[in-house]
Amino acid sequence: MTAAETPDETTAVLDTTPADADAAVETIHREMTAFARRARASAGRMHPQLSLVSYTLLGHLEERDGRRATDLAAHYALDKSTVSRQVSALQRAGLIERRVDPEDHRVQVLHLTEAGRHILGQVTESRRAAFRERLAGWPEEDLLRFAAYLERYNAWPGGAPDEERERSALRDTYR
């Protein structure tokens, strides 16, 4: 089988049958499911107070220098009540705080506290170390290709054929 040299090229020549492609899609599905399960399971080992979804929300708040809860729900395709429960738990733990939006005083924006930044930094470093350990034997070319494939996969702009089913899968992944 020959394929394009880089994953961002739009053309690829594949010597496969439809059955081979179907088997590859099934393998991708199985492996991504295993990845999601492993990520959820390892989150508790990284920090007992920080679930995978909490870690993800904290990271997003840090990247964006704060966000409204409704923005988080929309970004992650999660129900507002799910985000509200997560936000309440993070606030009770002292990891985030609500601040009045200076541009619209009716709106509250979620921001990390110093404790939130500290824990996020600790967990981020632990996760990076775990990834480095797991990928230690990989050649640099494989790492670069894998990173590019993941970016390409996650950048796909199309919607799922059944958006509710996709949202349900996301909710199950991040609970």
Automatic annotation (TrEMBL):
Pfam families: MarR_2. Residues 25-155 form the HTH marR-type domain. This is MarR family winged helix-turn-helix transcriptional regulator.
